[in-house]
Structures are given as structure tokens and as C-alpha cells.
Design goal:
With 264 residues, this protein is an alpha/beta fold. It is built from eight helices and ten strands. The protein has a single domain, classed as LigB-like (Protocatechuate 4,5-dioxygenase, Chain B, 3-Layer(aba) Sandwich). The strands form three sheets. It has a six-stranded mixed beta sheet, sandwiched between helices. A two-stranded parallel sheet has the order 3-4. A two-stranded antiparallel ribbon has the order 8-9. Helix 1 crosses helix 4 and helix 5 packs parallel to helix 8. The mean pLDDT is 94.
Length: 264
């Protein structure tokens, strides 16, 4: 007998430093709690800030590799493996949903740290298939919000839509101390984004400069901000909005997570 897939939420996670994969802190504890209380997905589609491309690509690997796309960290971090299976059928479904956009199914990428540094906490057994979708750097923010809208049917097919990036992400302004004070501009922009999300004003979030001077410091480059728009694009009128993880790390790295959940 076939069963009807459980409708899945859409989740944006600010993943912070790659070292969160190994750490037990307030943020990773929040991710673990999320994984324990959310319905088990049939599969996960991840949009990670760290697959920023020219064009739109989706991983079609049956066994996607764990990619260590960073440098200068402790050797233990490079030993982490997240051996979740892929799902070629989901990759094909994503390409179909995004038509007429040309989406190339590829096997020369895998799961980068934007994906696995979160999933090692939310789904530590690595027993749920994971597919990654790239972010086309050539496109405006409205394009990425629209792709999220087209991907929304996956939620009713048992697929968790995960966006992984950071609302405030400026490595030049990071203070490499966990207890560092948060500057006012970072808190101001994070609060502005949360207020727009709560108001349901998703189109406003395609123009982050509207937040004022804090935007230029908070989003100096767009790749960490854009995954949020995929998640918001998949919002339904019945969705409840919550922020299950909040706060800042290393001074100015926002760790805000956004959860959209509801009956659809």
C-alpha cells in the first residue's frame, strides 16, 4: 500500500562557521531540537550559499560526496563525512518544476558545508536522501523568490526545502570570539528582515537595500542572503512563521533560522 507523504515545512538556517558541525552550542542545540520535532521528510532539497554558479544546476548523484569547501580549520573538520544518499528522481523532478528554465543535472558536486554542517545536527543518521540546487549568480533576487514558488509543490511530496546561508554575513566584520558584541547595524538589519517576514512582505525582501545603511554591511555579497528567498517563495497562506534559532555569533554573523510550517 502506498502512503500519502507528510507535508513538509520550509526551513532557512543561518549556518555560521563550518566549525558548528563539530560544536555543541546554543545554535546547534536548536538545530538538533528542530530535527527531532519536525516531521521526517522523504527527501531534502538544499539550496546552499556555497554552490554559487553561472546557471542553475542540481545534483543527480546516487551517492553525493561530502565537500570540504573551506580552508584553515582543524583537521577534524576535514574528516567529517555526511554519507546521505542522493535521489536522481528528485533531481529530475526539480528540473521539471523549474521548466522552461534550463536546469542541468550534474554529478560533479555533492553536499557542501552549507548543507552538511546543518544536517549533521538535524538529521544525524544521514538516512534521508539529499539533493542540492545551485544559485545562479547572474540573476536578480526576484528570480530566486520565483524559483522558490515553483518548488513549493515539493513540500506536499514529502520534501523538506532547506535554505542555508545567513541573513547577516560579512566576514570582513567578523570578530573571532564567540562572546564578541553584536554591532548595531547587524542587529538592525536582522530585525528588519524578521519584521518583513512576519508581515508576509516577501517581495520587499528582494530589495534589501530598502533597510537603509545597515544593508550594505549586512549583505556585502548576495550568496548567503539568497537561500532565504527560496524558502520564502515556497510559503503558503496557511503557513505559520517562527524563528526557532536566533542570535549572533562571532559578533556579526546572524544565526537566525526561519521556519514556515502549516497545512498548505
Amino acid at each position: 500500500m502506498s502512503t500519502v507523504p507528510t507535508r513538509q515545512p520550509a526551513l532557512f538556517v543561518s549556518h555560521g562557521s563550518p566549525t558548528n558541525a563539530l560544536e555543541a552550542n546554543a545554535f546547534t542545540s536548536g538545530w538538533r531540537a528542530l530535527g527531532e520535532r519536525l516531521p521526517r521528510p522523504r527527501a531534502i532539497l538544499s539550496v546552499s550559499a556555497h554552490w554559487y554558479t553561472r546557471g542553475t544546476f542540481v545534483t543527480g548523484n546516487a551517492l553525493p560526496p561530502t565537500i570540504h569547501d573551506f580552508g584553515g580549520f582543524a583537521k577534524e573538520l576535514y574528516q567529517v563525512r555526511y554519507p546521505a544518499p542522493g535521489e536522481p528522481a528528485l533531481a529530475a523532478r526539480v528540473a521539471n518544476l523549474l521548466e522552461p528554465l534550463a536546469v542541468e543535472v550534474v554529478e560533479d558536486w555533492g553536499l557542501d558545508h552549507g548543507t552538511w554542517s546543518v544536517l549533521v545536527h538535524t538529521h544525524p543518521q544521514a538516512d534521508v536522501p539529499v539533493v542540492q540546487l545551485s544559485i545562479d549568480a547572474r540573476q536578480p533576487a526576484s528570480f530566486h523568490l520565483e524559483l522558490g514558488r515553483r518548488l513549493a509543490p515539493l513540500r506536499d511530496e514529502g520534501v523538506l526545502l532547506l535554505g542555508s546561508g545567513g541573513i547577516v554575513h560579512n566576514l570582513a566584520r567578523v570578530v573571532w570570539e564567540h562572546a564578541a558584541a553584536t554591532p548595531s547595524w547587524a542587529d538592525e538589519f536582522d530585525s528588519w528582515v524578521r519584521a518583513r517576514i512576519e508581515a508576509g512582505d516577501d517581495p520587499a525582501l528582494t530589495e534589501p537595500a530598502a533597510a537603509g545603511p545597515s544593508a550594505a554591511l549586512s549583505v556585502p555579497t548576495p550568496e548567503h542572503y539568497l537561500p532565504l528567498l527560496y524558502v520564502l517563495g515556497a510559503r503558503s497562506p496557511a503557513d505559520r512563521v517562527s524563528f526557532p534559532v536566533v542570535g549572533f555569533d562571532l559578533g556579526s554573523l546572524s544565526m537566525t533560522s526561519v521556519l514556515l510550517s502549516g497545512a498548505g
